[in-house]
Amino acid sequence: MTSRSERLGRRLLAALTLSVVLSSTIQAASAHEANKRVADANALVSNDAASRPTPQSTRRPVARAEKGPYYVDFRARTAASWGHAFVWYGKTSERAVEVAGLTPKGDTWTYVLGHLTWVPSETGASYGDLDPDYLTANYRVYLNEADAKRVFAYIKKLQESSPVWNAETTNCTGFIGDIAEYMGLKVPYRWQRPENFVNSLKEINGGRQMVRLSAE
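^ thats the sequence. predicted structure below, dont judge the formating
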């Protein structure tokens, strides 16, 4: 009788223990599932927030509008002699740039001869114009789209109407000086070293970054 009672007691104890274990397991699983749902919900909110564009401050669009989407960059670089002045121009959102400048066409002899008389010219990119290691000075000015179209057209026309180069009269600083003047900038004395010319151009214009052409 005692043995039977003991067996019955053990069974009841085992059943009670199993019940407690199952209850704890179910509660833990429920808690885990609830936590998982909260985590999933948080992740969904985070992803949704990340997918939406960050609100911009009211100042940023104004700053971009003031600078304009187009530019002309007056630049100077080192060269075998005095250096060279030229311009980069294009759209700020694009890596490609247009280059315009006035150089003698040909070899060293053409350059030397160009100190005595006029020689044929080239008005596109020359060696070193795209290499930042050669850069000695620059002054970038921004334009809106309408003004940029006018300025860029003027640069193209100036290239087409500059068939000769001369070190003293029709040289690179005079060329980019014409562009600056057309844009309404104050232009310094043109017949000086390219680096000095670009730095002076920036200085006498107060470093202004935005140019607006007068209405035609």
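The helical segments are 2-51, 59-67, 108-113, 145-160, 172-182, 194-204.
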